[in-house]
Design goal:
The chain has two helices and eight strands; from the N terminus they run βαβββββββα. By secondary structure, the chain is mostly beta strands.
């Protein structure tokens, strides 16, 4: 759905989108969309600055592999969003300046409007944790035998030795 500045000049636009898995490309190797993405909200234009405000709620079930044990896991994504977009020419021509905390919530759009699917895709990508864990106390995989330590206790003996200090053993 394209959010046109001209249309927003006339009225606020409400949206309710449901996107099946595969309709948005997240371009992630280890995470994919497992269920429909549903989003609802409202878009309005502040005509004095041509700022587009997008508010709403998003729900989607993503899935990926735990970073420690590599077991498949669900990543539920559900949150409210309140976003501000300014025309890209608002950023151009200004000298470099320190970014204030207020400015970190502002993004930019180019042309005659904004593509809603791009906004939703970006918000989902930002909500996925950098380290995905199936549970907080995940023990991971044994580096010696490859057993999943959450399922079985392996008999491997782990000696953490820093090879840089091995010359001291000969003294």
């Amino acid at each position: 759905m394209f959010l046109s500045v001209r249309e927003l000049e006339l009225k606020k636009v409400r949206f309710e989108e449901t996107l099946a898995p595969g309709q948005l490309s997240f371009e992630l190797e280890d995470v994919k969309q497992a269920g429909p993405l549903s989003a609802a909200g409202e878009v309005e234009l502040i005509s004095s600055s041509e700022e587009i405000l997008v508010t709403g709620h998003l729900d989607v079930q993503m899935e990926g592999a735990c970073d420690r044990c590599l077991e498949p896991m669900g990543l539920p994504v559900s949150f409210d969003f309140d976003l501000s977009y300014l025309p890209v020419d608002e950023a151009g021509g200004k000298p470099e300046a320190e970014i204030k905390s207020v400015d970190t919530g502002i993004a930019y759009y180019q042309g005659n409007g904004l593509e809603l699917n791009d906004v939703l895709r970006e918000q989902v990508l930002l909500s996925i944790p950098m380290q995905k864990l199936c549970r907080e106390d995940c023990s991971g995989i044994c580096p010696h035998c490859g057993q999943n330590r959450n399922l079985t206790k392996c008999a491997c003996r782990v000696d953490a030795v820093d090879e840089r200090w091995s010359a001291l053993k000969n003294l």
